[in-house]
Amino acid sequence: MATLVASVVFGLVVVFLRFVLRAKFRQEHRKVLYVALILVAGVYVGYVGYVWRLFEFVVGVLATAGALGLLFALALVPYVSDVFASISIALDPYINIGADIEIDGKRGKVIEISLTRTVISGDECLIVVPNKRLRDSVVVVYSTKSIQKLF
């Protein structure tokens, strides 16, 4: 019953607004009418949602989605950290493909830099280093190539 009354009141308010705005603004009444209708429709939807208790459902759904999003974000932290580390490595003028480096006592040439890992060719082996570890560790660069500044 309350929803029916609210719908009738909504219709009457729309008709009244249209009549008043047309008389007051003549030419530009449509622009003002659209803004007023959006405000009145928002109040109407809010009232109907309150009466039908729709917001309790929406709050529950949003809380669940937020919790799942938080779990998803926490699960991806190591990968996102590696991606940001790869960006900093890509911007570093000293560490490039072909550079001769040493990290944690292991020396070799950089042969690949990807989003999550860097591959170094060591003494008859490949060393795969996560980019986060490469960024956080002390890296000794032995390259004899001239280092060009990016600036």
Helix and strand layout, with pairings?
Blueprint: H1 2-25, H2 29-51, H3 54-75, H4 77-91, E1 100-103, E2 106-113, E3 117-121, E4 126-130, H5 131-136, E5 139-141
Antiparallel strand pairs: 1-2, 1-5, 2-3, 3-4
Helix pairs in contact: 1-2
Number-wise, the strands total: 5
From the spread of the alpha carbons, the general shape counts as: elongated
Q: Give me the Rg, rounded.
A: 32 Å
- The helix tally amounts to 5
- How many domains would you count in the coordinates? 2
Largest sheet: spatial strand order: 4-3-2-1-5
- The poorly predicted ranges are none
Give the averaged pLDDT, no decimals: 85
Task: Summarize the amount of helix as a percent range.
Answer: 55-70%
Order of helices and strands: HHHHEEEEHE
- Strand proportion, as a percent range, falls in 15-25%
What would you call the structural class? alpha+beta
Whole-Å distance between the termini? 72 Å
Q: What profile does the largest beta sheet have?
A: 5 strands, antiparallel
Domain Mechanosensitive ion channel MscS: 79-139
Subcellular location: Membrane
Transmembrane segments: 32-50, 57-80
GO biological process, one term: transmembrane transport
